[in-house]
Design a protein that fits this description.
single chain; alpha/beta; Nitrilase/N-carbamoyl-D-aminoacid amidohydrolase; Rossmann fold; six-stranded mixed β-sheet; 19% strand
């Protein structure tokens, strides 16, 4: 047996907080050494924080990362554990996104990322240079390039995040060059369902390359990106460890590297591919670690858990449904997004929400409630509830169109959560603003739409005025479906410092509320769900009546926005999804959606920064980059 203990260090880093980030890494490094972990993987770009974007163009930002990497090495000089840590390194005119190998106080080498993503929320090729096969550079006297590393426990390779997502990444040539372990340092943002995708992809890579993969992911949020942490150790396709997500900390597992060697010898296809590699490609050179690594003689063979065998899985335990797990993940992810936005900026004293008694502001409030709990982990239930009154503020601002049902629902949920609640009628302000606008129009009356928007803008202005003086974080509460069609008011309910649920379709908002009601049984949730979903800016207003049924709206959003179907294709697909609805009606919905979607881009590009949780996000800066000025003459035919 050749036993090694492999570790995953999840760190909640902040962009630019190079010293604080490395302090966190040093603390976890010493924990790992105390626990006799042989090799520890830290996340991608953990020294400088991710995503730094154009900040890497500041020489001082890059230079201090190197200084902090050297400090990490110095602070771990007496430790035998080997560390792989993510950092930016500059060489001449190049900037590289690297995994640095550190051992016994020395920076042994740096391996640059090869697959630089430029899709969805990623823009790495804008600022970083790609690593390539055979690259060998000098970074302040340290080798930087395409290397594997040899040690007294075996040979390992290093790669960075996206490198593992491509089947044509550097893993294969490094494994053919002797790497028995591949360490992947990652900053993979959360998106719904991503954990299952990662698990399956890593198992495939580990099996295809007959290697042991150690994958460590960043945890926490920066700007609108949420990182769910966690990580995996997978040996030749066999899962060995799955680290806890949404939490900073250290996880480890013992593996027998002789098993990896045996699997390679048994896999004739892998060996024949190796023969071809040797005949056609150069071997990746190795850098040797100097000095002994952690003592491993006391490690125990990785036997299965008590009560199980090698041939049977662990005893079955009750589990939530996949749907509930996904909704619970979303809740945790959004709460971390709010919590880290609040605490990492450091400019806020509390959180404020314009609470309408409707579904969107309710879900935003529940997420903020969870965020306050995340930020106060040491408080017991009673102390946390007392803190809520100071940290979570809600305001109900009715007009003649506001119903007693929504006011009671808003009051109930604030009471349930311990948040402060204040009723501030805006009817008088509404009348004054109507009169002032009528004067500007030289006596002409306001349109019905303007009359509705006036109410929303008064609420938005009041929230900003309160936020400016109180120092509170004003949360915007709009959902993705209504935002996509411009069913929102610039200067009104589109206002806020952070959009919390603006990338959640309305059907997901409702599903999350159903799930949270099942989990917490709060009367305020039930009261809100009993009301009609609508903005209450006019009499008897219904969102579905004014737009379309939410299920159809969200289907259009998916087909048009995510699948990139043209309008006629959307109509055809809707016929398959909703066979009981007549084709002409579905065609009308498809045409209405595409027309309003394109015309509303100018609105949603003005929205505050939003939290990213899916593969389709309405964020022109980071995700769906669409021209504001365009026409839809192309959209009739999807050829």
């Amino acid at each position: 047996m050749r036993l090694v203990k492999l570790g995953i260090a999840n760190v909640d880093s902040t962009v630019g907080a190079v010293r604080s980030n490395v302090d966190r890494c040093i603390a976890l490094a010493h924990r790992a050494a105390k626990d006799d972990v042989t090799l520890v993987a830290f996340p991608e770009q953990v020294v400088g924080g991710y995503a730094a974007e154009d900040l890497v163009q500041w020489r001082g930002f890059v230079a201090t990362q190197w200084e902090e990497l050297e400090r990490f090495a110095a602070e771990t000089r007496g430790l035998a554990t080997v560390f792989v840590i993510g950092v930016t390194a500059g060489v001449g005119g190049d900037l590289f996104n690297c995994g640095a190998v550190v051992h016994a106080g020395a920076i042994v080498g740096l391996v640059p990322k090869e697959k630089l993503p430029t899709y969805n929320v990623f823009y790495e090729a804008r600022t970083f240079s790609r690593g390539v096969p055979g690259l060998h550079l000098d970074a302040r006297g340290i080798p930087l390039g395409d290397y594997v590393f040899t040690s007294d426990f075996g040979t390992f390779g290093v790669e960075v995040c996206e490198d593992v997502w491509s089947p044509d990444g550097p893993m294969r040539r490094r494994c053919y060059s002797g790497a028995e372990i591949v360490v992947n340092v990652s900053a993979s943002p959360y998106r719904t369902g991503v954990v299952a995708t990662r698990r399956e992809m890593l198992a495939t890579r580990a099996a295809d390359n007959q290697t042991t993969i150690v994958y460590a992911n960043l945890v926490g949020a920066n700007d609108g990106l949420i990182f769910d942490g966690g990580g995996f150790v997978n040996q030749n396709g066999r899962p060995m460890l799955e680290a806890q997500r949404f939490k900073e900390g250290l996880s480890s597992v013992v593996v027998d590297l002789d098993r990896t060697s045996r699997c390679r010898r048994e896999a004739s296809t892998w060996r024949s591919d190796l023969e071809q590699f040797r005949a056609t490609a150069p071997t990746v050179p190795a850098l040797a670690l100097r000095g002994k690594t952690t003592e491993r003689g006391h490690l125990s063979y990785p036997a299965p858990a008590p009560g199980t065998s090698f041939f049977l899985p662990s005893k079955a335990v009750p589990q939530a449904s996949p749907r509930d797990e996904l909704l619970d993940d979303l809740y945790d992810a959004l709460a971390i997004g709010v919590a880290d936005y609040y605490r990492k900026i450091g400019a806020f004293t509390s959180i404020g929400i314009a609470l309408s008694g409707g579904r969107d502001s309710l879900l935003t409030l529940l997420i903020a409630w969870r965020a306050v709990a995340i930020m106060n982990p040491d408080l017991d239930d009673a102390a946390l509830r007392a803190a809520m009154k100071d940290k979570l503020h809600t305001f109900y601002m009715p007009t003649r169109f506001s119903s007693s049902a929504t006011q009671e629902a808003a009051r109930l949920i604030a009471q349930d959560l311990g948040a402060s609640f204040l009723v501030l009628p805006i009817e008088d302000a509404f009348l004054r603003e109507e009169a002032a606008t009528r004067d500007m129009l030289r006596g002409a009356d306001l349109t019905e739409l303007t009359r509705q928007n006036v109410q929303a803008r008064i609420r938005g202005q009041r929230m900003w005025n309160w936020s400016n003086t109180s120092g509170a974080l004003f949360l915007q509460t709009g959902n993705m479906s209504e935002r996509s069609l411009g069913y929102t008011t610039v200067g009104g309910d589109l206002e806020g410092a952070l959009s919390v649920i603006s990338n959640l379709p309305k059907t997901v908002v409702i599903a999350m509320l159903d799930r949270l009601h099942a989990r917490f049984a709060l009367p305020g949730i039930a009261a809100t769900l009993a009301t009609t979903a609508g903005p209450e800016l006019a009499a008897d207003q219904s969102g579905e009546a004014e737009l379309m049924p939410f299920e159809i709206l969200d289907a259009c959003l998916y087909l048009f926005g995510a699948e990139k179907l043209a309008t006629d294709e959307v109509a055809t697909a809707l016929g398959s999804l909703f066979p009981d609805i007549e084709a002409d009606r579905l065609r009308g919905y498809a045409e209405k959606f595409s027309k309003l979607f394109i015309r509303s881009i100018y609105k949603w590009v003005q929205a505050p920064i939003s939290l990213h949780v899916g593969s389709l996000d309405l964020d022109r800066e980071r995700a769906l980059q669409l021209p504001v000025v365009q026409r839809t003459e192309w959209s009739g035919k999807g050829k």
